[in-house]
Amino acid sequence: MNERELQDAVSKLPKSIEPPRDLWPDIEARIGRRSWRDTRRWYWVPLAVAAVLVLFLLGRRERNAWDVTALAGRPLVGELRLTASGRLHVGDWVQTDDSSRALIAVGKIGQVEVRPDTRLQLVVASANEHRLALARGTIDATVDAVPRLFFVETPAGTAIDLGCAYTLETDSLGKGLLHVTRGEVEFQTGSRAARVPLGALVQTRPGTGPGTPYVDDAPAPFVRALNAFDFENGAGNARTVRTVLALARAQDALSLWHLLQRVDPSLRGAVYDRLAALMPPPTGVTRRGALALESRSLEGYWTKIRRIHFRLMILRGVRQINPRTGLAR
Q: What's the total number of domains in the chain?
């Protein structure tokens, strides 16, 4: 068939083809049945996604929670009165009255006993940070972990665990006391910090932070003089500083080490000279470097002070240790 014949054949075709009946009702019915089958096939997908999301959030919430046990009475944990044990979630408070106590498992690294009349909140519970907030009351913490993993916030600052055990208390005005019974704790408020080793205490105040640490057998007049220096505007008072220095013993070297960094610069020389007389500086520490608060001199001196202090505490009542040298007498 040539081109002309093809054109003639096309021209003879009908312009439209009408079906013998209306086909739309059958088409509409088939579309409806398929739509329902598709709906039945896929409607469960968003429900499954929602279920997975809920399980994930619940699992995450449980991971961010610590076990808590009632030791006496019925402590309040979150909104519930605890009769035996439960879970403390991030954001929840533990509150004890005058006849109740609780024990909190700090993840897998330690525990905190909550004494009566205490209000304590779980702030962070993660693999790299465990953090509580003590609004008032007293806790006993015991932690075995790498340093700077466990923190307790107070109105006066933050107790930073360096692998230790300690008692921390805070009254209704925010005044507090930290007593370390094992290892060492750093208490920090802004740029002001105190290092508190085994057998030492430090008093804390809102707006001021940590005072000067002192050993637990420090004479009462020495502690009063430190309090005057720390909390009664005595940092620049030469008379207050001279009183502290006159009352200091070799066992009080850790107090003078902190004092050196807090007195008026004009008084640093007197503090250093008294410290050096009570406990001679180690090799590498110079008077000039210490007065300039050079890190190398300060850290070198602290290493010696800490070593002798730990020997004094650990061997207390067992052997007589020279507080100047750390050697047995």
A: 2
